[in-house]
Amino acid sequence: MLSRSTRSASSSFTRSVTTNRKPTTSIIRSSPSTTTKQQSAWATATESAHSILTPPPSSSSSSSSASASSSSLIATSLDDPLSVINSEIGNLKSSLFRMLGSSNSSLDKVAKYYFQAEGKHLRPLLVLLIAQATNGLGGKGWEKVQLESRNRNSIDDSLTSQGGVLNDWNPEVNGDENTSNQHIQTFSNPFKLPEIGVQKPLPPLNQSEFDLNLDSTQENVPIILPTQRRLASITEMIHVASLLHDDVIDNSNLRRGEPSAPSTFGNKLSILSGDFLLGRASVALARLGSSEVVELLATVIANLVEGEVMQLKATSEPEKNPTKKGFEDYMRKTYLKTASLMAKSARASVILGGCGITKEGEWVKDVAYGYGRNLGIAFQLIDDALDFLPPDPSLGKPSLGADLRLGLATAPALFAWEKYPEMGPLILRKFDQPGDVELAREIVGKSDGLQRTIELAKFFSSSARELIELLPESKAREALIGLTKKVIERVK
Question: Where is the composition biased (Low complexity) (predicted)?
């Protein structure tokens, strides 16, 4: 099924637009208020999906900052029907802050900078919903991972027996290193083997509410394992690391309507903080205990780099004419930069749920991967279409040709190029001459480029829905189906 969907997708971009579609100009001339409503629909969809998840149990051992954050959110929304969502996101964010603690104040501040902004948290939400929709389908594999979870002390347990720099001391989790003298490594003296019997156990960890079992109060809804919850945090860390790097590469001054990290802290600290996020994500990945999951998420990081290099090549060495190869390169870049993380983290989530340990649940891994891949590509195609709409702070980017100003020819421009050759010279010179961006938007406006982009996104979205409908009925599955609809409705 996956191969058939992929083959269909590769050829669908050349399909003509049917005569009963709405005029493209009506999409381009949408008012800012209309765009706000479109984004609100998408936000409502992700909020609705969040509400499927049951809240985590409270823990007296949580760090004071995490408890304060969670308590504040719940206290302000006791009468709010979305209070479950608020507590869930509050605990996700506090868990992320814990994982990024550093004794270096500058690094600590920049690494946490983008996590302070309110976002849709689509990627961790996807991981959690996939987990809840598939846990139990692995048969004996599910029984095995449940037993392992019960026998495990903490998701933060170090794989090394010594503390300090050897296993990357995190003050938010391990406490102040200076209060545990037996774990401090002094670098003014050579390293020597510790005396037998002298070593003391590591101090107790500060537990996180978010990383405990997510027990369900609903019938026939399985728990979400701590490893799956930690995976949700890891996916957001990798995503934010890519944003830090992208904003340096693109010289972006804004991110989600606020000053970007490079404009606030400088390029060097932004790059180093992105690297720090990837380092902490790698440590957390190793502690999940699955080599297959480590491999999947490690390849995501490689994919992000490959996609960025492909994008750089597309702007420095663009195709001379509209070709299938040029469009396939664009679609491949879209997968590498956007959909890969969603696809592979969804697959990793079901692996942590025991699917694939036996042949009984092997098929679920492909369903999860295909859903994440198709949804991710649909999401990015719609994002590319939104770049031709009036600006809206909720989009997370300035729009009005923001991609064009970076020299990027996305799907609407590539489709328009097929009927309007005058788009070619603009692409070749990366839209860098005065009036090029405005002319390119005008050409797209009179072409069917936006229409075809949206139709292609619908094709990928419907393919994602077909895959997720193979899973047993559940509220989590319905929430995942809802996301496939709302991702398209952002441009209605």
Answer: 1-36
